[in-house]
């Protein structure tokens, strides 16, 4: 595998990795423009823009965009996160130039037809409605909001319906003009790709773009709090969040290994103690998320209304216990899971292209896999216990609960359990 990078004079970055054994490739444009880049009155516009990119350009109709890729057996998609928007495709080797042409077209030349805006507005409102009807989706949005209240990073990516109902062509064009500059873009490709050919094509497509100022993000400030939404559901959806390290903090590997050992699989403490031994839930897990300047270590479980308090208290007990007796075997297993998951995932060119873009955005370079594995292997049992101890002593927590909440604990109840 051959990793190569290049930066055009206007700041547009190209990063590729050739995978000799493949006859297909994943290619896309990742843009540093997501939910965090929105002002309050713009909440949801980055996601709206992602949808509109597929609704027609100066050269292609919406149908022609889809047909161009699907006629050659490929697929094209996009997503919006809190810090990035991505447009990407997977095609066979000979169709990489076509994929880049289509992706560059939807990124650079959307027409924002008024009729299509209204059609897609309806689609997005349906998406919002579907999310609200999916408790284990919406509860994480609420957790993010109470963790980071009144901040861009705390707002939902989809945005509220009233905002989505108000966006127009001028709003979409203005957001693009402000954030879709060459210095905010990364062209990443992995698989059967020719780096030099992509650089030449990128120069022709993006080389004339005028640089735009980088947006200074509002600093994330974890505050914590609680939101309990009572609704007649079969289960209570319980989430709890602690502030974690950002993705440049060396502790990021500690947080990820802790989350894996604590609630990342069937052998984890939460799964074994709460599901297997006590039968208090079907689904329970922990995970570690990270952003440019903060992170969130999260616990989730779905349980019955009369068992939610017991489940939450046992989670607190297990967190305290992890600070005292997390074993070397558990840590070794979590490290192995983390490394295997990463390496298995990178057998996919789509995952590899995603990694190229994300690492370039975070570090300005793509760390070698051996460098990451060394960092993972350097995390000790003592590091994990210390990380758990800091969480157990933390006074600030975020909690979101959705469903029949009459028996749900308060944040004070959880804090007192940790202090006991």
In short:
With 420 residues, the protein is of the alpha+beta class.
Write structural notes for this entry.
With 420 residues, the chain is of the alpha+beta class. Helix content is 45%, strand content 19%. The protein has 16 helices and eleven strands. The strands form two sheets. A six-stranded mixed β-sheet has the order 1-2-6-3-5-4, sandwiched between helices. Helix 1 packs across helix 7, helix 10 packs across helix 11 and helix 11 crosses helix 15. 45% of the residues are buried. The model has no long low-confidence stretch (mean pLDDT 96).
Indicate the structural class: alpha+beta
Please mark out the parts with pLDDT under 50 across 5 or more consecutive residues, or reply none: none
Mean pLDDT: 96
Q: What does the radius of gyration come to?
A: 23 Å
The first-to-last residue Cα distance is: 53 Å
Strand content: 15-25%
Q: What is the H-and-E element order? A: EEEHHEEHHHHHEHEEHHEEHHHHHEH
- Largest pleated sheet: 6 strands, mixed
> Can you give the helix content as a percent range?
40-55%
Give the overall silhouette: globular
What is the tally of helical segments? 16
Oligomer type: single chain
Number of strands: 11
Spatial strand sequence of the major β-sheet: 1-2-6-3-5-4
């Amino acid at each position: 595998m051959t990793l190569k990078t290049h930066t055009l004079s206007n700041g547009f970055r190209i990063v590729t990795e050739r995978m000799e054994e493949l006859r297909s490739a994943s290619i896309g444009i990742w843009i540093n423009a997501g939910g965090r880049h929105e002002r309050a009155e713009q909440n949801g516009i980055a996601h709206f823009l992602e949808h509109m990119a597929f609704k027609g350009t100066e050269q292609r109709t919406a149908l022609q965009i889809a047909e161009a890729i699907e006629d050659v057996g490929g697929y094209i998609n996009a997503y919006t996160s809190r810090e990035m928007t991505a447009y990407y495709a997977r095609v066979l080797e000979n169709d990489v130039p076509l994929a880049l042409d289509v992706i560059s077209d939807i990124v650079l030349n959307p027409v924002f037809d008024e009729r299509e805006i209204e059609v897609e507005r309806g689609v997005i409102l349906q998406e919002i409605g579907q999310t609200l009807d999916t408790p284990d989706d919406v509860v994480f949005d609420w957790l993010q909001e109470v963790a980071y209240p009144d901040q861009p990073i705390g707002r939902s990516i989809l945005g509220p319906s009233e905002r989505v109902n108000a966006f127009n062509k001028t709003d979409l064009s203005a957001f693009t003009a402000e954030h879709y500059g060459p210095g905010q873009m990364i062209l990443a490709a992995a698989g059967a790709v020719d780096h030099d050919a992509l650089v030449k094509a990128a120069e022709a497509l993006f080389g004339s773009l005028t640089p735009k100022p980088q947006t200074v993000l509002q600093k994330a400030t974890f505050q914590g709090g609680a939101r309990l939404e009572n609704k007649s559901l079969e289960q209570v959806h319980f989430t709890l969040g602690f502030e974690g390290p950002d993705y440049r903090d060396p502790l990021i590997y500690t947080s990820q290994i802790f989350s894996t050992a604590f609630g990342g699989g069937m052998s984890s403490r939460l799964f074994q103690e709460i599901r297997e031994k006590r039968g208090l839930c079907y689904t329970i897990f922990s995970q570690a998320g990270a952003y440019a300047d903060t992170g969130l270590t999260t616990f989730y479980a779905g349980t019955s209304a009369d068992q939610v308090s017991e489940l939450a208290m046992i989670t607190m007990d297990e967190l305290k216990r992890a600070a005292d007796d997390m074993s070397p075997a558990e840590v070794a297993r979590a490290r192995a899971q983390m490394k295997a998951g990463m390496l298995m995932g990178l057998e996919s060119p789509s995952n590899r292209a995603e990694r190229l873009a994300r690492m370039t955005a975070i570090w300005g370079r793509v760390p070698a896999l051996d460098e990451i594995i060394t960092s993972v292997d350097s995390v000790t049992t003592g590091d994990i216990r210390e990380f758990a101890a800091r969480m157990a002593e933390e006074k600030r927590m975020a909690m979101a609960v959705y469903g029949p909440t009459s028996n749900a604990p308060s944040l004070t109840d959880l804090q007192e359990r940790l202090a006991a």
